[in-house]
Amino acid sequence: MKRVLNLFLCLFMGLMSWAQLPELSVEQHLEDYDFAVKYIEDNYSGFGE
Question: What's the 3-state SS for the chain?
Fold first, then answer.
């Protein structure tokens, strides 16, 4: 039973690793960061007091 559970776990983890999205470029990471900062600056009432 333990072997079956370990096999299932290994197969599941292997399939999950294939489901990941492709790696983003540095520019895409910076765009996401800039978007998040601008969103917080615009929508957080305590920012910039």
Answer: CHHHHHHHHHHHHHHHHHCCCCCCCHHHHHHHHHHHHHHHHHHCCCCCC
